[in-house]
UniProtKB/TrEMBL annotation, chains A, B:
It is an enzyme of class 4 (lyase). This is 4-amino-4-deoxychorismate lyase. One of its GO terms (cellular component) is cytosol. It comes from Amycolatopsis jiangsuensis. GO terms for molecular function: 4-amino-4-deoxychorismate lyase activity. The lineage of its organism: Bacteria, Bacillati, Actinomycetota, Actinomycetes, Pseudonocardiales. Belongs to the class-IV pyridoxal-phosphate-dependent aminotransferase family. Its EC number is 4.1.3.38. InterPro entries: Aminotrans_IV, Aminotransferase-like, BCAT-like_C, BCAT-like_N, Class-IV_PLP-Dep_Aminotrnsfr. SUPFAM superfamilies: D-aminoacid aminotransferase-like PLP-dependent enzymes. One of its GO terms (biological process) is carboxylic acid biosynthetic process.
Length: 283, 283
């Protein structure tokens, strides 16, 4: 099932047409989005997601989004949802219709079922390939027009990378910079566990700050882990106790195979981290 | 005015909603496009544009587009047009609705008026800044998932680069690779004229092969110019007889200022090249 809501809180038929063909979101991929997990009617990390939407919008010089309106739309989707206990809730915000003198953005919230592949990956883990992203780790800071670290809807490269992974018999991707450092997944944050420390690369190298990674690190610190945000080399990944891809809907997914080579079994670490993450939302 | 047509040749109200919010063209910038100039009811370089649409679609693993249908839609837009003598005719082709088991792409042709800024730029030329694209010139060939050289609708970076140019008081951009070589404009091909030779970089460095550049080179050869497709350094640009940005709707636009420095006057060369280009479509 799918539930669509606009920023005034009204629900609409998601199977009907609502967009003009000259929306710049479609013609130019000119917009930003967020995907939020809703479990048992409760959106997770709603405020960090809204803040990140506003940050992405600012990177694209879009008008500041009406966050109260997005919250209202999110609530309307949740209240109108008749499906399973989880919702993948998308917030979408585009520059609106090309040539509109008022410059009115297009904005909506859309709830969809969690994909069956994601549910399987949460249980079984994933096989991942590293793919070059083509950039150096220092380009983001001095070339903001590359929009690195924004969550724009111009996601064609991310989707192409996932198809390349499938061609290689894998389910997901870790992008690397030209110097071999770890960037991010096409739709996830990379986390390395080693000696009771969690590592993730800093967003300054041109990656999206991860809301799920942040929540996990917060919980892990409380549970006695060390957490470090620092550059990682791709060659480090095979030398730890576990590699994980974190994102709102996939949660903390275990990487069992990297570039065709099985990683050391991280099932126990995964169970511990998954429990830590869930404990952030219980009680 | 705007005229919208679908691939069966039917016209539709471009001001009405025709797309679902869960079109992957919007959610993921997952699609390809072309923009074609129509002058006096005649589309220019229609076949090369259709071929490039098919090539871009293949790079994104989209189903092969129905080119006869796109031609039919283009014809319907042209026949239905009541505006000025020129039309900017967009062909758009997306992966369609997320989760659609039939995988039916979204496809349409949309005719719009030529932008007033473009008309001015054709006459007055443009001030251009060079901006880093962040890639090396060799990455395209071994990392096809970066989709370099495809005309995908994931154009947010191209649009951000144009806004950066505006912030610097310029109207357009020439992207450079990490080694300082010339790539392309966000929506154009770069051409250098020097000693009766026209130069443009090869598409193998990760840029879109230009239909207008190709037509100009074809005409220029007939008119006695030499043409060369070879790598150019950004530092070469100031040392020739003229720098031009070519694209379907802007035609061959003169660059009068590069990174804030006036280039040698290329008005006469521009007049000659503009006439050569137009002669490809007269008679």
């Amino acid at each position: 099932m799918r539930v669509l809501a606009f920023l005034d809180g009204s629900l609409a038929d998601s199977g009907a047409a609502h967009l003009r063909v000259d929306d710049l979101g479609l013609l130019r991929g000119d917009g930003v989005f967020e995907t939020i997990l809703v479990a048992d009617k409760k959106p997770r990390e709603l405020r960090p997601h809204l803040d990140r939407l506003a940050r992405s919008a600012a990177m694209l010089d879009l008008p500041a989004p009406d966050l109260a309106g997005f919250e209202r739309a999110a609530r309307a989707v949740i209240d109108g949802w008749q499906g399973g206990r989880e919702i993948a809730l998308k917030l979408v915000y585009t520059r609106g219709v090309d040539g509109d003198p008022a410059g009115t953005p297009t904005a909506f919230a859309l709830g969809v079922e969690v994909d069956a592949k994601v549910l399987r990956a949460r249980e079984d883990g994933v096989s991942v390939v590293t793919l070059e992203r083509g950039f150096g780790p220092d380009v983001a800071e001095h070339a903001p027009w590359l929009l690195l670290g924004s969550k724009s809807i111009s996601y064609a490269v991310n989707m192409a990378a996932l198809r390349e992974a499938a061609r290689r018999g894998a389910q997901d991707v870790i992008f690397t910079a030209t110097d071999g450092s770890v960037l991010e997944g096409p739709t996830s944050t990379v986390i390395l566990a080693k000696d009771r420390t969690l590592y993730t690369p800093p967003s300054t190298i041109g990656i999206l700050p991860g809301t799920t990674q942040y929540a996990l690190f917060r919980g892990a610190e409380k549970a006695g882990w060390n957490v470090k945000v620092e550059p990682l080399a791709a060659t480090d990944l095979a030398r730890g106790d576990g590699v994980f891809l974190a994102s709102s809907v996939r949660l903390v997914t275990r990487v069992h195979t990297l570039d065709g080579v099985a990683l050391p079994d991280s099932t126990a670490v995964h169970q511990e981290l998954a429990a830590i993450y869930e404990s952030e939302y219980s009680g």
